[in-house]
Structure formats: C-alpha cells, structure tokens
Amino acid sequence: MNADDSKMPLMDHLRELRRRVMTSAAVVVVCTAVAYFFSERIFAWLVRPMNEALVTTGAGTLAIVGAMEGITVQLKLSGVAGLFFASPVVFWQVWRFVAPGLYDAEKRWVLPLVAASTTLFAGGALFCYYVVFQLGFPVFLTMTPENVEAVLSIDSYLGMALTLLVTFGGSFQLPIVVYFLARLGLIDHIDMIKGFRYSVVAIAVVAAVLTPPDVMSQVLMAIPLIILYIASIGVARIFTTKIRPPAGALA
Asked: Most buried of 52, 106, 157, 160 (most Cβ within 10 A)?
C-alpha cells in the first residue's frame, strides 16, 4: 500500500461528509423559505395559549415593541420551522453517512431509534404546548401586580415558548439516553432501581433549572420525567450488556 492509497479513503470520507452536509443545508433553506409563507399561521398557533390566557385573565396584550420586531419574529420562526420540517431529511443524511461503518445488527436499530427519538421529542413538545402552556400561562398572568397591565413583546414570548418546547422535547429523550448507556454496559435495571430516590431528586433539580421559577412548571416537568424513568428501567433490563457476577459469587 502506498501513501496515496492510505489517503484516498479519508478524502473520500470527507467528500461524502461534505455532500451530506450540503444536501441537508439545501433542504433546510428550501423548507425555511416555504415556512416563511406560512409563518403567520404558525405564529397564530404558537401564541394561541397566551392569547387565550390574556383574554381569560384580562391581564394585558401581546405587542410589537421594536421597529424590526415583526420581521425578526417572522424570520426566526421560519428558520425554526424550516429546520423542524427538514429534520427527517437531515436524519436520513446522517444515517446514510454513518451506516457504512455499522454492523448489520446495529443498522437494524438505527431507524427504530430515530423514530422513537422523534416521537418522544414531539410528545414532550406537545405536552408542553397543551398542558404546561394551558395551565401555566393563566397562573403567570395572575401574578401581575395590581393596577399593572402586561404588555408582552412577541419576540420575547416567541423565545420563551420555543425554549420551553425544545426543553420539554429534549427532556423526553431519557429512554434513548438510557438505551445507549445500557448498550455500553454502564448501567442496568438494578442500578436504576437502586438509584431511584437519587434520580427523583436529580429530576426535581433539573426541572427547577430548565423551567420558569414557579412550582407548577417544575412539577409538570418532573412528573412525566419520573414516569419516563420508570419506563426506562424496562429499557435497561432488555438492552443492557452489563455483566453481573452470579449471586453469592463475591462471598
């Protein structure tokens, strides 16, 4: 083997990576451009819980507080929506790039894991929208001091709403994280059962850090995470590669 032969595989690998990245970027740009034409409908859906809370409580209104805020919100929302709608193609490009380096047994699990991860993320985001937003926003608005009307910036609201949606979607990835830790042999169901009490405390801390500083949001994040932790015990039991010595072996 000469020097050129040893370099060619790496160069081919880099060219393949560039091709996958360029394809993904092009799809994201196209989806963002399409999403721009629907940005008003997307924004109307996103602000519906806050508008309903504002009408119910009579606490104030959403408003534009900067000259460029309207177009900035449209562009930001279009970018996020474009990335979301392009994500299946992006995941497919990632899969096509890494697939040649995987064993057949590993390849069989990639697509189910991607589907499970996508479903869990969407479930977390929808839980945030239909439960946390619906229950939390009226409570937040009633905390406004007396004789003070809330004038909420639409850019500020969009940032908060998207942050919460992504946070809940990401936190619902717990079973996927447990799957990889179990496959690496780092944990099994016994470890998770023994550490349940400590994990509940850790979940409470994470919920307090990732959500607004109110008890309701923290509880609404902690409860589903605890349920997912219990479900993840089953995931760890099925997929763990950790080897434990037989009972009594140490004695």
From this structure: 157
Distance in angstroms (rounded) separating the CA atoms of residues 203 and 210: 10
pTM: 0.81
Helices (H), the chain: 3-37, 39-57, 69-98, 104-127, 134-142, 154-171, 174-183, 189-194, 196-210, 215-239
Over residues 147-187, the pLDDT tens digits come to 667 778 888 889 889 989 989 999 999 999 999 899 888 99
CA distances from 17 to 3, 21, 86 (A): 22, 6, 18
**Domain boundary assignment for the chain:** 3-154, 173-251
Whether the CB-CB separation of 176 and 140 falls below 8 Å is answered with no
Number of C-beta neighbours around residue 250 at 10 A? 6
Got the DSSP string for 115-174? Answer: HHHHHHHHHHHHHIIIIIIHHHHHHHHHTSPTT--EEEEHHHHHHHHHHHHHHHHHHTTH
* Beta-ladder partners of 63: 153
